[in-house]
Specification:
Helix content of chain B: over 70%
Radius of gyration of chain A: 26 Å
Distance between the termini of chain B: 48 Å
Largest sheet of chain B: none
Structural class of chain B: mainly alpha
Shape of chain A: flat
Oligomer: heterodimer
Number of strands of chain B: 0
Number of strands of chain A: 0
Structural class of chain A: mainly alpha
Order of helices and strands of chain B: HHHHHHHHHHHH
Order of helices and strands of chain A: HHHHHHHHHHH
Distance between the termini of chain A: 61 Å
Radius of gyration of chain B: 27 Å
Shape of chain B: flat
Largest sheet of chain A: none
Chain lengths: ~290, ~325
C-alpha cells in the first residue's frame, strides 16, 4: 500500500485515480448512447433521402394519374380504397372494444383477457394474417380487394382498440359521474358525453393505424396481387391494383425502368405515411395534453 | 316511488298522461339502448379471441395434409424440393432463428442505448425531436425497406462491410468469406435490426422515464456517476420490461416476411456463414405461396405458417408474462 498523498489545499480540484476512471466510463457510455440515437436518425435520413432523390425523377402528372406502363394511378386509387374499407371495418369494432374495456369491464379479469388477446393480435405476423384471409375468403374463389381490406382490418383493429382505450381512460371520471348524477342512461352518456370528448384522440389513433396498414404488403401479396395495372377499378370484389404489391413486384424484376417506377411509388407511399403519422402524433400529443390538464 | 318523478332526464315538461307515456317510451329506449351498447361492446371484445381461434384453425386445417404426411419430422428435415414433393422446415427454422437473433443482438443494445439517451441524457427539446424521428423509422413500410435493402444496403454490405468483418473476425465461422451478391442472411438481419430498433427503443424509453426520480437522485447523492446510476438503479428496476420489449421486437423480426424475402436470397441450405443466402419461414411463405400449385406444396407452406404462429404466439405470451410477473411497480408497492 502506498503512503497517503499529502494534502495540498491549493491543488486544483481534478478527479484522479479511480474516480477519473469511473467518470471516463460514464462519459464513454453517454457518448455511445448519443451515437446510437444519431445512428438511428441517420438511417432514417438515408432511407428517406434515397427514396426522395430516386423517386422524384419518376413523379409527373402521367405517373400519378394514368395506369401502366406510364404511371401508377390505379394503384394509388386501389390502396386508398382498400385502406378506407379496412378502416370502415376496423374503426367501429375497435372503438367498441375500447368502450368495453373502459366503460363496462374496467379492471376486471375479463378486461385483462381481452387486452391480452389484443396484444396477441397485434403480434400476429402479417403474413399469417394473409394466409388466414386467403384460406377464409380467397381459396377456391378469387382474389379481391375486400379480402385485402379484411386482412388490413385485422392488422388495424388492435392498434385502434388500444389507442382508443388509452384516450378513453383520459376522459375525466367527473364527466361520467356528472352524467350519472343527472340520471342519464349509460348509452346516452357514452354517445353524448364520453365519445365526443374523446373523438379527437380516437381519430388520431385511427390515423396512426391507417398509416401502419397502408404499407402492409405481406397479406396483399396473397389475397390481392393478380390485377390489371392499367385499369382504374372501384370494384372491391375483384383484385385491384395497390401500391405495396406494385413496389414488391417491380423490385423483384431486374429492370432499371421498373426500379424508377418503384422508387416513385415508394416516394408517394412514404410521404403519405410519414405525413399522416407525424401529423397524427402531434395532434395526439396536443389532445392528450388538453385532456390531462 | 316512481322513477318518472325523481329522474330529471325524464321530466320533459308538462304533466298528465301524454308526458308519462313519453317518459315510459324514453325509459324503454334507454333500456334497449343500454342493452344494445353493452351487447355490441361485448361482441366486439369477443371478436379478437374469435379471430385468433379462427386463424389457428385455418392454419392447422390448411396444413393437415402436410402434417399427416410428414409429421413432426418436418421440423428437422432440411430438404425443400417442391418438384419432388419433398418438404422440410429445418433450414427455414434455422434461417428464421439466426436472422432474428443476430438482429436482436445488434439491435437490442442499440435500442436500449437510444432509450437511455431519450429518457435520461437528451434535453427535453432534443428528445422531443428525436423521439418521433426514431418512431418514424418503424413507420417505413417493410416493402420499401426491403427494396432499399436490395439496391442500396446489399451492395454496400457486400463490398465493404462483409470483407471487413471477414478480415477482422474471420476466425469465427459466422463471418466466412463474402459471396458475390449482397443477398445474405446478414443483410436480412441488418434490415430486421432497422425494423426492431424503434420498437424496443420507444418501449424502453417509456420504462426508463417511469423509474422514480428519487431513486436516481439517491444514487447520484451517494456519488454514483451517470452510468453507475443507469447500471445500478435504472436497468435493474426496468429489466423485466426491457426483456419483454426485446421479446416483442424478436417476435416482430421472426414474423417479418416481405423485407426478408427481398434481401435474403432464398437459399435452401444451412450455412454457418452469415454471408451466405438463406431463407426464413415467413419469407418462404411470401415467396412461394402465390405460385404454389400442388396440394402438398400449399399444405407445407401452411405448415410453415403453423410453426410461425406457434413461435410468434409463444414469444408474445412470454413477453406479456414477463412484463406482468416482474412488473417493478408491484415490487415497489410491497
Amino acid at each position: 500500500m502506498s503512503e497517503p498523498a499529502s494534502f495540498d489545499p491549493t491543488a486544483p480540484l481534478i478527479a484522479s485515480g479511480n474516480l477519473r476512471r469511473r467518470r471516463a466510463v460514464s462519459r464513454v457510455t453517454e457518448i455511445g448512447a448519443t451515437a446510437a440515437a444519431v445512428a438511428a436518425v441517420a438511417v432514417l435520413g438515408i432511407v428517406v433521402f434515397t427514396v426522395v432523390s430516386r423517386g422524384a425523377k419518376a413523379i409527373s402528372f402521367d405517373f400519378l394519374f394514368t395506369g401502366e406502363p406510364t404511371g401508377i394511378g390505379p394503384a394509388i386509387l386501389g390502396t386508398v380504397l382498400i385502406v378506407l374499407v379496412a378502416t370502415a371495418i376496423a374503426m367501429p369494432i375497435g372503438v367498441l372494444i375500447a368502450l368495453y374495456l373502459t366503460e363496462f369491464s374496467a379492471g376486471s379479469r375479463v378486461s385483462r383477457v381481452v387486452r391480452s388477446t389484443l396484444d396477441l393480435m397485434n403480434g400476429l405476423p402479417s403474413i399469417i394474417v394473409g394466409l388466414f384471409i386467403f384460406a377464409l375468403l380467397v381459396d377456391h374463389k378469387q382474389q379481391s380487394g375486400i379480402a385485402g381490406s379484411v386482412a388490413l382490418a385485422i392488422i388495424e383493429l388492435p392498434l385502434i382498440a388500444r389507442g382508443s382505450q388509452e384516450i378513453l381512460l383520459l376522459v375525466p371520471n367527473s364527466l361520467r359521474e356528472a352524467s350519472d348524477a343527472l340520471g342519464v342512461s349509460r348509452w346516452r352518456s357514452v354517445v353524448g358525453v364520453i365519445l365526443p370528448h374523446a373523438l379527437g384522440g380516437i381519430v388520431t389513433s385511427t390515423v396512426l393505424a391507417v398509416a401502419r396498414a397502408a404499407g402492409e404488403t405481406a397479406p396483399l401479396i396473397l389475397v390481392c396481387s393478380v390485377f390489371d395495372p392499367r385499369k382504374f377499378s372501384l370494384n372491391i370484389f375483384e383484385a385491384i391494383p395497390n401500391i405495396p404489391v406494385t413496389i414488391f413486384t417491380l423490385s423483384e424484376e431486374a429492370n432499371p425502368e421498373g426500379f424508377t417506377r418503384a422508387w416513385g411509388a415508394s416516394l408517394i407511399l412514404v410521404s403519405a405515411i410519414l405525413f399522416a403519422s407525424l401529423g397524427a402524433r402531434a395532434l395526439l400529443a396536443r389532445s392528450r395534453a388538453r385532456m390531462t390538464q | 316511488m316512481s322513477g318518472t318523478a325523481t329522474n330529471p332526464a325524464y321530466v320533459t315538461g308538462g304533466n298528465g298522461g301524454r308526458s308519462a307515456r313519453a317518459a315510459d317510451r324514453l325509459r324503454r329506449i334507454d333500456r334497449v339502448g343500454d342493452g344494445l351498447l353493452y351487447g355490441l361492446c361485448a361482441l366486439a371484445a369477443l371478436l379478437g379471441a374469435v379471430v385468433l381461434v379462427l386463424v389457428a384453425y385455418q392454419m392447422v386445417h390448411g396444413a393437415s395434409p402436410a402434417i399427416s404426411k410428414f409429421g413432426l419430422g418436418f421440423l428437422t428435415h432440411t430438404t425443400w424440393q417442391p418438384n419432388f414433393n419433398v418438404f422440410g422446415a429445418g433450414s427455414l427454422i434455422y434461417g428464421t432463428v439466426v436472422s432474428s437473433f443476430v438482429a436482436l443482438a445488434i439491435g437490442g443494445p442499440i435500442a436500449i442505448a437510444i432509450g437511455l439517451f431519450l429518457s435520461l441524457l437528451a434535453p427535453k427539446g432534443v428528445s422531443g425531436v428525436i423521439s418521433p424521428l426514431v418512431e418514424m423509422l418503424a413507420a417505413i413500410p417493410s416493402v420499401i425497406l426491403g427494396f432499399w435493402g436490395i439496391l442500396v444496403l446489399a451492395p454496400f454490405v457486400q463490398s465493404t462491410l462483409e470483407p471487413w468483418l471477414h478480415d477482422t473476425l474471420g476466425f469465427i465461422p459466422l463471418f466466412g468469406p463474402p459471396q458475390t451478391t449482397g443477398a445474405s442472411v446478414f443483410t436480412a438481419s441488418l434490415i430486421l435490426t432497422i425494423m426492431i430498433v424503434p420498437i424496443i427503443a420507444s418501449i424502453s424509453r417509456d420504462l426508463f422515464l417511469a423509474v422514480p426520480r428519487e431513486m436516481q437522485d439517491g444514487a447520484s447523492a451517494l456519488g454514483a456517476t451517470r452510468w453507475e446510476v443507469v447500471r445500478g438503479v435504472v436497468l435493474p428496476t426496468t429489466a423485466s420490461g426491457v426483456t419483454a420489449a426485446s421479446l416483442l421486437g424478436l417476435g416482430r423480426a421472426l414474423g417479418e416476411a416481405i423485407a426478408v424475402t427481398q434481401v435474403i436470397g432464398a437459399g435452401s441450405e444451412i450455412h454457418a456463414n452469415l454471408f451466405e443466402t438463406g431463407d426464413t419461414l415467413a419469407g418462404r411463405i411470401a415467396n412461394q405461396f402465390p405460385g404454389a400449385v400442388t396440394e402438398m406444396h400449399k399444405a407445407s407452406l401452411y405448415y410453415l405458417g403453423v410453426i410461425l404462429l406457434v413461435i410468434g404466439l409463444l414469444s408474445n405470451l412470454l413477453a406479456q408474462w414477463i412484463g406482468r410477473r416482474f412488473d417493478y411497480t408491484r415490487g415497489l408497492a410491497k
